[in-house]
Amino acid sequence: MRYAFMAFTSAVALASTPAFAGTSAALQPSGAWSLRETGSAPTPPMGWNSWNAFGTGITEAKVLGSAEIIRNSGLEDKGYRSINIDDGWWLKRRISDGRMQVRTSLFPSAAVGGPEESSLRPFTDKLHAMGFKAGIYTDIGRNACAQAWSPDNPNLPEGTQAEREVGLHGHVNQDITLYFKDWNFDYIKVDACGLSAYRPGNPRVDNGHFRPFGPLVVDANINQTNVAEVKRLYGEVRDALKQVRPSGDFVLSLCNWGSANVRSWGKDFGTIWRTSNDIDTSWGRMLHNFDSVSTRELYAGPGHWNDPDMLEVGNGQFDGNHLTEARTHMSLWAIAAAPLIIGTDLTKAPQAMIDVLGAPEVIAVNQDPAGNQGILAYTDSERQVIVKTLAKRGEKAVVLFNRTNEPTDITLTSAHLKFAAGQLIQLRDLWARSDLPGFTGMKMFHLRPHEAIMLKATGVPLAGEGRYLSEMTGRINVAQDGITALEADPIIHRMMDPYNPGTISDGNRPLYAGWGGPRADASPYDQTLRIANVPFRTGLGILANSRLEIKAQGEFKRFTAKVGLDDSTRGKRAAVRFEIYGDGKRLAVSRPMRFGMAANDISADITGAKVVELIARQLQPDTGNVVVSWADARVE
Ligand code: GLA
């Protein structure tokens, strides 16, 4: 049985409908794009950071040495603009007034103004004179990461317990003013070990070396993590930065490793946010970090980016002896619209590595102004086809990815690309920078072990003059995801436990909340979108009691979709009503839809609307999460 959709004009009709969580304020249309940018990054940030290359063995000479190579090799002109120092720069906090002191033995230019004085201003002046932005590192708690995890390191903060409290906690405004006003930094990475590693029971907390704190973040358990408090603390930093840098010319990098459900709120608090624990130089870890962003496509967009951590290109299994892996790592970060932060000692990098980092057509995909993250057009545990819709109409970037140790074949189809099946698709190899023979329908590629083929495809869009919403994820804001019980995402690759030798622990289990989050061209539980047994190749999958904002900017006339309960739903009893708003005005409302009912067409005249909102309102409680599909959702 098919239900027709009606455009309601009567508020009474809505108010009289029995409602459940669907009445919550979060489901009220905002009538506007409610995402407020933190800092400025219209495209993913690019630069260099000291950590992956030097750890706390950082020195001013090493940082400037890498900066010079970035300038002289042409990488600066290609977009690598930010030179960021990580853990290890600090000596202590001065007790008389709380001012942070630099370890001047490592940063000689900071030794200005007397023995109890220091300033990183000469250092940032040098970087600025070279045309760079300058980045600094701190922690949101009282103490930082190397203090907790590398106790034998020689460059740890010194002095009394209070002097060693180098993190922001209790000093947010003072430190942010020092770093951004006095020292003139432009970029800050704010780690979170201070919230997780200094719990009572830690021997060096119990013996008084560190003051106890929390924990507010329990890395492997979202239920033991105080999400609201973590958000509040990062919010203080965001607000201080906005005050000290009212121009908004800064980057705030949230580094709480995918904990505290940052997946959903990072966009409202930072410019970029880490989605996983630290990358390292192994293939398995790179897969893990990539997987932690590859299903988060609806959270990234201009000004706000998922961060799978800094590049290991040039190191370990991605060094000059592993050029295939180095290119693959770079291809994946590029198509995922991830920040491209170099993490290798460039003074030792062979030219081949500089060429990988500087591949102009690969970088162009990462920096494409539409800001769409690549989405998974095909995926199994071994092969993936990742497609990123580019700003220029009819252009897509695509990565064909062989995750395995064996050669394999991957067939790219016009459907993966959302191009018309009968029309010629032109191809360009973005690593070789040469055109390939085009194809119609499908084309098979042979891949070496660990290889990623990265292409640009040009064709006739299936959506005609319009576009599917999954082709404009950079213009979607997930205002309400409908998740009520946070669950760890089980589909992220888990390598051997990186923090305990061998297999002595009980393993590396699913870690990051986010399972059930909204997806493009998939259901929240990573199934094909499917309503009443009919599969759909495109659309948005999301839980009920959700609200999405679409930045339409008056460009479109009509929204259409086929809506219904998705067959991957957990709750099968409740009915859901689908509502479409334009600039806060209700444009169309569905009848209550139930599990098993055939998909129904819904459409709305969105002429002139700046923001279109899609609300899926659950009308009764249910025993499990109710999954809905906005299948074939498109604007034209
Ligand atoms: C954490 C971060 C890393 C690095 C180190 C420094 O582990 O995630 O990126 O900053 O701390 O100690």
Instruction: Write down the overall geometry.
Output: globular
CATH H-level homologous superfamily name of the largest domain: Aldolase class I
Largest sheet: 8 strands, parallel
Instruction: Provide the CATH top-level class of the largest domain.
Output: Alpha Beta
Number of domains: 3
Please give the CATH architecture of the largest domain. Alpha-Beta Barrel
**Strand line-up of the largest beta sheet:** 9-8-7-6-5-2-1-10
Question: What's the total helix number?
Answer: 15
Mean pLDDT: 95
Distance between the termini: 28 Å
What is the structural class? alpha+beta
Which radius of gyration do the C-alpha atoms yield?
25 Å
User: Helical content, roughly?
Assistant: 10-25%
List the bound ligands: alpha-D-galactopyranose
CATH topology of the largest domain: TIM Barrel
Q: Which runs of at least 5 residues are low in confidence (pLDDT < 50)?
A: 1-19
Strand content: 25-35%
Short note summarizing the structure:
The protein is of the alpha+beta class and 636 residues long. The protein is built from 15 helices and 31 strands. The strands form seven sheets. Strands 9-8-7-6-5-2-1-10 form an eight-stranded parallel β-sheet.
